[in-house]
């Protein structure tokens, strides 16, 4: 235990302040700053997902993030009956040839409804990974340059620098310091 503690504490703590140590500052990032670090961070934030969906809708590819989200939700499903129902819903919405919001993934033609009879939490994982990579290497970089992202970032910065936000911070400081 002692060795572990020595290993994790820096020898020169004054050098490792938040600004010069990326992993420390990474933990304090919020909103658009956090979204810009990775697609994973964007997808963990409900507001980020909302803005990304808004962007993808304009690009006519919202089905990608909807499929990814449905697969994430599917992994948490308990019970064979519920899994069968959700698997069928994912299949008919995103994967079948008649799907209303069909995603374009490799191996899709080999999928058929018989796979839905014996569902398991990771049955869509390969397809979900394909869609994630498509978003990560295609849509995500365009999203970070989009008006939707840049306007949201700008409004966040204005909120942080507004006199109201500073006054609220001072009030909170007074409340907690008394």
TrEMBL record:
Gene3D superfamilies: 1.10.196.10, Regulator of G-protein Signalling 4, domain 2 (1.10.167.10). Keywords: GTPase activation. Pfam families: RGS. GO terms for biological process: regulation of G protein-coupled receptor signaling pathway. The keyword Oxidoreductase does not apply. InterPro entries: RGS (IPR016137), RGS10/12/14-like (IPR046995), RGS10_RGS (IPR037879), RGS_sf (IPR036305), RGS_subdom1/3 (IPR024066), RGS_subdomain_2 (IPR044926). Signal peptide: none annotated. One of its GO terms (cellular component) is plasma membrane. Residues 38-149 form the RGS domain. One of its GO terms (molecular function) is G-protein alpha-subunit binding. Residues 154-178 are annotated as: Disordered. It comes from the Eukaryota. This is RGS10 protein.
